[in-house]
Amino acid sequence: MRSAPTTAPGPRPVTLLPAKLAAVACAVAIAVLLAGCGSSHTSGTSVDPAGAVPASAPVYVGATVRPGGSQKTAALSAGRALTHQADPYLRLLEALQTPGSAALSFKRDVASWLGPHAGVFLSSLRSASSLLTLLGHGLLGGSASSAAAFGFGASGAQGAIVLDTSDAAKARSFLDTQAQHAGGHSATYRGIAYQSTAAGVAFGLVDRLAVIGSESGLRSVIDTTLGGPPLARASGYSKLLAAAPSGALAHVYWNPVGSSADGTQEGLAGLVMLLASGHQVNVSLVPSEGALALDADTLASNSPGTTGGLLSSDPQSAAALGELPGDSWLAIGLGHLSTTITQDVQALRSLASVGGTPGGSGEGSSSGALNFKSLLEGLLTPLNALGANSAQAKRDFASWMGSAGMFASGGSLLELRAAIVITSKNPALSRAAVSKLAAQLRRAGASLRPATIAGADAAVGVALNGLPVVLDVADGRASNGQTKFVMGFGEASVAAALSPPSTLAAAAPRGAAAAALGEGIQPSVILELPTLVSLLEGAGLTEDPSISAFVPYLRAATTLAGGGRPLGGEVQRFRLVLGLQRGG
User: Any idea which of 86-100, 242-256, 258-272, 423-437 has the lowest mean pLDDT?
Assistant: First the structure.
């Protein structure tokens, strides 16, 4: 085997995208879970805020903010396991921290008037990243006095926080105080009084609902309560809510249909692209003892180009996972890659951008220190070429692709084996694709090296800027008789992909993942978090600013399992289950 460049020994970067996947699962779970922050003792109106949110809202988060009984017990258990704090929900109050406000106390400022339900909606997908900022501020902390922490306003997100109330008078007093601190002035819309600031932040009590958001967002709530069509009665939303799992503490609804988003969204928007691939989706959070489940239920669409999705219920995905090496601690299966490769790569770029956008220059890659952004860019470079949205790329690459898988095995950097494995439907075309991909990467600045790999009919080594190890690209016949196209970190990774000593089809981790998922779901995602964290530590990446904030939550988790199944009635489900450390 050829040795890797001396700047960083051993194959390392394969851990990065799995780290993002796991970190995002943690972040979404916590951000929504933290909604359940209050005591269950309330005589709230039990009004569903979705009944006051306009039906046109493309993004809506609904939550039970004052759960009771077993739901509250499960929420507290999961929150404490993830945060290692006795009261893990206090920081989410910072989501209500409007400009000029002093630090809020739940008992002093909120408990006396907050009802059992809350919602947050956006009027445009283009401001979806602002919602992540709003929730992330409560999740990861920050300066409570920073006006930038509040996501809504004239120059921020358009939409609002909508809170059920148990005492309208006390809720109005809270809103008046917050508006006064923010420099609000009196305004009226359609006979409803509210207050607005020069920055476009609005405060008002609308039909016993406390509303804080952009002025246009508050006005849309008024329009809805005065007879406009509400989200609660929208067809797609209603179908998805009817299929939602019982015991959900919170849910996120996403509707890209008719949106002006251009498909290049990153961060939160890209994450939902990853889950839904252009469909309407409702992601429900269900806490339980020792685990958190995220159920992404998507509504079928007849629109062209909206089939598939990186995390879909395609049975080919589960079958592809079963063909990966049996000792894999990371395994992801993908089905029908020929029709989804372009959107899958776009979704991966968006996933990678959560917590830090990949850089373009790859600076620092030759300095001897691993650089998170340049490593991500190096990993995505060959995938960008394979998934390019051009006629030539579809002819040279997508045309021969079947199902695919990504795996990593080995418990240390020296033992690490990792590769992306794509089943070929046309051996001649996939064999030719080795040299075609290498040529594209060379034009992009990579250097090529000769490679001879047992079992491969064609092979080449590619040294990419930002990656401290040679990427071997090969095409050959696997031990199961199928022709497979492999991109692996080192020749040993390619060999493991083509001729694994055992496969996941009958391995214990796959059985454990299926048991965790339930409902007869077969896994297409398996990830062991302790191994991932250990490798991140060995690579010196746990202190990288792009991921360091997520590391404590990665340490609190044990496994991540994912898989999907059709529910019937146009709805399909993809479930992610995050196992949690006991005694957290």
Answer: 258-272
Instruction: Find how far residue 352's CA is from the centre of its chain.
Output: 9
Provide the domain limits for residue 48: 44-233
Contacts of 69 (CB under 8 A, 6+ apart): 40
542 close to 25: Cβ distance less than 8 angstroms = no
- Do 327 and 432 share a domain, yes or no? yes
3-state secondary structure of 259: coil
Say which DSSP state 109 is in. Answer: I
Strand, coil or helix: what is 420?
A: strand
Look at residues 175, 210, 233 and tell me which one is the last residue of a structural domain: 233
* Nearest one of 351, 359, 333, 353 to 277, comparing CA atoms: 351
Statement to judge: residues 201 and 322 lie in one domain: no
Q: Which of 306, 314, 297 is nearest to 257 (CA)?
A: 306
153: left (phi over 0), alpha (psi -120 to 50) or beta: left
CA 498 – CA 474 distance, rounded (Å): 10
Provide the residue type at 343 as one letter: Q
Q: How many domains does the chain have?
A: 2
Q: At 47, which amino acid appears?
A: V
Q: 225 and 112 in one domain?
A: yes
Are the C-beta atoms of 467 and 446 separated by less than 8 Å?
Answer: no
* Separation CA 65–CA 249 (nearest Å): 8
- pTM here? 0.84
Does 313 share its domain with 223? no
* Cα Rg of the chain, angstroms: 25
Residue with the bigger pLDDT between 534 and 18: it is 534
* CA 145 – CA 103 distance, rounded (Å): 8
pLDDT at 50: 96
> Distances in Å between the alpha carbon of 539 and those of 24, 307, 367, 370?
20, 37, 15, 7
* Mean pLDDT (whole number) for 264-279: 58
What is the rounded CA–CA span in Å between residue 35 and residue 48? Answer: 15
DSSP state of 157: B
pLDDT on residue 352: 63
- Distance set, CA 491 to CA 69, 107, 171, 372, 461 (Å): 55, 60, 65, 24, 9
